[in-house]
Amino acid sequence: MTSSPSETEAGQAEGVDQAEEVEQADHPLQGFADEVAEAVGGTAEITFDTVKIKVSAGDWVKAHQTARDQLDLVFFSFLSAIDWAKEVEVGDPLKDEDFEERIEMLTTVSDLSAGMRVTFSADLPTEKPVIDSLVGVYAGADWHEREAAEMFGIDFSGHPNLAALYLPDAFEGNPLRKSFPLLSREVKPWPGKVDVEGMPEDQSSEQSDEPSTENPEA
Amino acid sequence: MVIDADTLRHMSEASVSVELETEDMTLNIGPQHPSTHGVLRLVARVDGERVYDVKPVIGYMHRGYEKLSEVRTYPQITALLNRIDWVSGYANEIPFMVAAEKLMELEVPDRAQYIRLILTEMARISSHMVFMASYPLELGAATPLFFALRERERLLDLLESVTGGRFHPNFNRIGGVKPAYGSGSTTRKWIQDLPAGFFEETTQAMVRIREAVDQLEDLVAGNEIILARTKGIGVLPPEVGAAFGVSGPNLRASGVKFDLRRAENYLPYDKFDFEIPTGANGDCWDRWKVRLDEIRQSCLIIEQAVAGIPSGPLQAKVPKVIKVPAGETYVRAENPKGEMGYYLVSDGGGGPYRLKIRSASFSNISILPWALEGVLVPDIIAIMGSLDFVLGDVDR
Questions:
Q1: 3-class SS shares of chain B: helix, strand, coil, % to 5
Q2: pTM of the predicted protein model
Q3: Is the complex ipTM higher than 0.85?
Q4: Per-residue pLDDT tens for B124-142?
Q5: What's the fold here for domain A7-183?
Q6: A11, A82, A140 member nearest B265 (Cβ)
Q7: Cβ–Cβ of A108/B262 closer than 8 Å?
Q8: Cβ–Cβ under 8 Å, residues B234 and B281
Q9: Which residues in chain A have their CB less than 8 angstroms from residue B101's CB?
């Protein structure tokens, strides 16, 4: 991942040359990223002006505690996850197939003065992901974890009430998993590869067209 | 006897603190309730007028935008984003556009940036005007509604004259904004951009809005009942708010001088002079006052932007089919209701691999169980209303 200087971030990105790995040290956020990484015991990466700190799943709560107490990152922005999957039901599969299947946890916390923010990341197995709950560190993690639990099937151990937040109680499946189909696209792929589509029943013989986010004119 | 806020509160405290054998009752408030701006259900356990605990039940408006974004192209997604917080639809598009442009390493022309900034501030004023209209209404004062909505309507007319839409402008394009009324190539016809007379009308509108804000302040700040219902009610300490992720005017009312327009660089706010209003006590009254002052500051910003807008193209050179290079980033912006952010993961295709939508109202109302514990039943409405949430922004 290369760092990205852009005019909208002129204040932060000035003096950074167009982006080779070597020049990452020049990124104005590099010092801050290294400081955080050292404090929480993770590895730092700057991806397009976002400081991303990778920690092990076991250090998840400890890292956030350090961030809150020592680094003054008191504001809890969000918690969510990414499903890195090779088989996708919805959307386009990743172009680069050389990656490890996993659930990547994400949180972002920030301070309330200079606006420094850090995105923490930890990898969990795709099957039965479990991680410790952050509710004791950031109270706001409560609802975010409930959402991630129902959407990705992640178990947060130590969460006081991991009930469904959005979905009905009887709902089965984890909608934001890549393996979860999107029903409306099953019935009628849209936007399809051609501009004019027949009705679903007319197409039953030629249903092989995969739904794609690609523009038909591409 | 002078009836001020304190006396009233003591009177109401006294009337419920008599020792009696009482029974808990579970009270369902909503999903349809005039004060909820959408469909929110509260399950409250009450003993007489005292609330023991409250469980908000959300999800009635869950539309699954994060999933839907994975099957759409970048230009298509803005149509969804407008509908997250429909009271300030335009402002929702900005952080997403900036995130995509960051991954594409695009330079947005100055004029487009200024237009984005003017329209974002208009969205902020119109969102705060809805609050100015609805909040006193929830507390029983109907008159401010007419003052606030009348001015908002004029602002929406301006927004419509540029974008063609009052609530769902869908006006941003990757690399800039869409030329108003224009068709065809955005780079060729850049002269045909904003409608004639837009700047004059905007300047006049700002004068009227300032007048309306003064009138609103007279009407509401001089009303003893409103003062009694809001002062000292629903006090939110800043450290609690921060841990819950409460942001925007709600956090600033608790005395935190933090505004993403200053802390982040998603639009050229560094070129403008404006203050960040904060409150002292973090009660319902401060949350109302901070929003009122923010309208005045937004007027200042718009006037400066109108005076200093550069000429030039409205869109950077972009390919006909938008493909965003692989990478991930988080971009957040100061929306009228607080921090709105998008964590965008692209793999180089025409649509995102994953789009996490961080909406302000979701975190803002996650504090309700904490804030409503131990309050009186009528204060539920005063506190909820003062947090200024929209259910579309909660459920996404």
A1: 50, 15, 40
A2: 0.81
A3: no
A4: 999 999 999 888 888 888 8
A5: Beta Polymerase; domain 2 (3.30.460)
A6: A11
A7: no
A8: no
A9: 6, 8
